[in-house]
Amino acid sequence: MANRRKFLKSSIFSGLAVTTAGLSTMACEPEPEKKAVKKPIVISTWNHGLEANKSAWEVLSKKGRAVDAVEQGVRVTEADPNNATVGIGGFPDRDGVVTLDACIMDEFENCGSVAFLQNIMHPISVARKVMDDTPHVMLVGEGARQFAVEKGFKEENLLTEKSEKAWKNWLKNQDYKPKINVENHDTIGMVALDDMGNLSGACTTSGAAWKMHGRVGDSPIIGAGLYVDNEIGAVTATGLGEFVIKICGAHMIVELMRQGLAPREACKQAVERIVRKYPDNYKDLQVGFLALSKNGEYGAYAIHKGFNFAVKSGDEEELIDAEFYNG
Fold this sequence. Notes:
With 327 residues, this protein is α+β, with helices and mostly antiparallel strands. The protein has helices at 2-28, 49-60, 66-78, 123-133, 141-150, 161-171, 241-246, 249-258, 263-277, and strands at residues 41-45, 100-105, 111-117, 138-140, 188-193, 199-205, 226-229, 233-239, 287-293, 298-302, 308-313, 317-321, 323-324.
């Protein structure tokens, strides 16, 4: 019996010694090296993002808020009559009417959105007013137009001579099949990380060319065309919006980043989900995603070759071709 007690006592103390040694070893292990946060930084979709980023940078470089930067940035594209996919000069719907969609989201997850807005050049700023001045998230159609006018926005004809001519040419055949990287190259999405370490995003478009009157895509839909979680990252989308909506693309990518995926890999998984779920459609459409993490890491991925995005930071200013599905 004495020998048994001696054995148990010895075993207990040996176990404690091993456990203590293990704890000691664990306590001495170095913590994983933390990546330096790259800020401020702004990224945006397509080559028109280069000019838009410059305007956003004017805000960010003066330690301004990311939400102000993204609003000012995409306004540049909205006001460009030579851009046929955003704001004034945007291609109309099949009835010859230019209708605009936009949304914005700040670091507090406040958001504002407008859809099917007509005769107002800067839908992103109307969306900002919805966010800041109303208890709502989205206003649409005539209600959105009335709200914009009440807030002092000027009404004007957004159908330029160039876009009207393109519409009349389309009417001759009325073949609705968006061309990859051309007619559904229809958005500027922008996300930014400011000097305070806060994220925000904006997305604005005239939508798919020759769409049915009343059609709304992903660009004004929080969680589809844009989503911001200030703990994790910010994501925007471009391309044929119906398929972005179907997978809640931007929100999905943020959640994948929450699980530890890098921005590029999260975007890739979203693209692969579209490919997997819609095998009969994806070859004829383009969708691209663009993501920015809380530490300033960015990444993008598209279904097809041709999607590019613009980056602007203190030491970087370039247009980058996104990787694409090659299955």
